[in-house]
Amino acid sequence: MTVLIKSGLFRSPQNLSSLICGREVFVITNTTIAPYYLDAAKQLFAEKACHHYLMPDGEQYKTLASVTRIVEQLILQHHRRDMTIVGLGGGVVCDVAGFVASTFQRGVHLIQMPTSLLAQVDAAIGGKNAVNHELAKNAIGTIYQPQHIVVDPEVLTTLEDRHFYAALSEVVKYGLVYDAEFFDWLEKSWPLILAKEQTTLQQMIQRCVDIKLAVVEQDEKDYGIRQILNFGHTLAHALEQVSGYQLLHGEAVAVGILWALSLSEEYCGLDATVSARVKKLLTLPISTYDGPTQALIDVMKRDKKHRDQFKLVLLEAIGRAKVLSFDALPVIKRIPVPIPG
User: Fold this and answer.
1) Region of residue 202 (phi > 0: left; psi between -120 and 50: alpha; otherwise: beta)
2) How many whole angstroms separate alpha carbon 51 and alpha carbon 31?
3) pLDDT tens-digit profile of 211-268?
4) Nearest partner of 37 among 159, 183, 201, 141, judged by Cα
5) What are the residues facing 264 on neighbouring strands?
6) Which of 58, 62, 143, 244 has the fewest CB atoms within 10 Å, i.e. is most exposed?
7) Is 127 helix (H, G, I), strand (E, B) or coil?
8) What is the distance between the terminal CA atoms of the chain, rounded to a whole angstrom?
9) Taking the model in full, what pTM does it have?
10) Domain architecture of the chain: domains with CATH
């Protein structure tokens, strides 16, 4: 697998047809991204026959129904195994494109071209592809690595601020669970990151990609060290589902991280100053979750990572994560949550 990170790639397209397997390209994107970048993406593969499929935008479309519609299109257009699927979009598009590529004709060539910060640092990296079931997020999925990942940090200038700020929780996560030096760099570079300064963004994205690939290389199937990347996610996935996906993934992860940090202080002796440092970075508008706590617990019990015990990723120190097992979930007190919008 190769990863190309280059600012301005869509603005001054170069020919990337050499990345394509076969003669045909099928771009999966959505109605929000297409007006900005679909034509530019096609120009990157100008030497190939290029088709596309437009999904509606939103987490609610990350379903088997969407996959079925795309596969029907592939069949009707007589696509074969010697073709390449390109996922052009954010986390939902990358998930769906990866799932389709891993299952159509038992697996075809895949290129991920993430256009959101969340996808550039997380969703497009590592090979996890999944769709949601009404009872659980990411309940149906595969692990299937893309052959190439193409990232243009410049596209983040058109990303809504809410989505950009929310995704920074995943960036902070990498420093917390794996790389204390990177966390220190984030603190120093935060003003430039919030200003979307291109050199700084490229450095940040590159480090996130390097960390995730290093972890995945050791544990692709998520049975060992890769579990540390779930830091904050057990509560996050439950919050997303209980909110009807009104909360963005990154917003829910921010809350999950704060909860995990409080548990880390209690069970791992984490210095309380860590939470204060993290709160300075995750500057989302915050309210309080007043929904039914039992609903959150019920969803968390269905988490695919749990069997007889609950596994939670906690911190001993910045850069040192561990997985602890609990016979019962630690008490969920009143939970601060981001205010959508």
Assistant:
1) alpha
2) 15
3) 999 999 999 999 999 999 999 998 898 888 888 888 889 999 998 998 899 999 999 9
4) 159
5) none
6) 244
7) coil
8) 37
9) 0.90
10) 2-157 (3.40.50.1970), 161-333 (1.20.1090.10)
